[in-house]
């Protein structure tokens, strides 16, 4: 079996570890990495490289005003929206596990107001959606779900005569309008104007009919668990835009631009393909090694530096996938992959693996997990924009330290 595993070249190993090829050879000479020599040169076991990468990871620190060598943290910002303690995620001090059964609209409203008891008020359908759908129809065939969402945000902003109203109430209206409208941009299915955000997404993304009720519950849970997660790069982009007093649509558009990246919002796409390979009969070792070799960015769906073990969002969402149409082979594949990755690379499942399992079991398109993630996180982006509006304008404009000759 070992001979059949896709392996990493020296260049791929160096890129994964963020070092020069000479450094990789130094690791080999010190007995820190094993290699195999062949007619094409030295190759490395992808999972051993992942385990080594994890062992080299250190808690970031800042000294004398400079960031650690891995670039984190560039700065520390106070936030009362989400926090992580003892491998548990909290929204405004409430454990995520206690919120996951609540309607996503109620959780979003709570994040925006900062208090319980405020009734969610969501529009039926934003006035600009017909125009947005006309523009989406002009996108090229290769346009993905995030392209459709970004287009919709920009069109809805252009169509909203009150977009530049700087009030917090306007930001809440923008958030509610986006959460209602964005699911409708993802498909051609007729959606009831009274449908919840989760039910709208389930219909738009083509969830299997026999699992409608369970599917909508799973999507609702996915929306809730992805709403916020510390200051992720897309959230920071939204706050930077808000620091310059961008309107709500522009701030969400800025966040989506950062979100649409393989190391953040679209990471579940590779995980879907890896799961599909195992479901189709590939050995989990081969599927995992192939995914690492192809992507060059670690094992898709595994590892979260903010948690010592499993991502609690994945632990909440994965059990809900069991009720969906193709759940058994998908979850069998997830367990097999998790066993291999946990044993050989010492990595635990993250939210991207759970989203991949959800969309694969529901027979949605491969990038549906990214769309669900983006719409869930929109609630958090708006909460952060509201918070940033309460701070000094342009406080997030850093100064550069010239390092040239």
From TrEMBL:
Keywords: Transferase. InterPro entries: Citrate_synth-like_lrg_a-sub, Citrate_synth-like_sm_a-sub, Citrate_synthase, Citrate_synthase_sf. The keyword Transferase applies. GO terms for cellular component: cytosol. It comes from the Bacteria. This is citrate synthase (unknown stereospecificity). Pfam families: Citrate_synt. The keyword Transferase applies. It is an enzyme of class 2 (transferase). Its EC number is 2.3.3.16. Pathway: Carbohydrate metabolism; tricarboxylic acid cycle. GO terms for biological process: carbohydrate metabolic process; tricarboxylic acid cycle. Belongs to the citrate synthase family. SUPFAM superfamilies: Citrate synthase (SSF48256). GO terms for molecular function: citrate synthase activity. It comes from Candidatus Agrococcus pullicola.
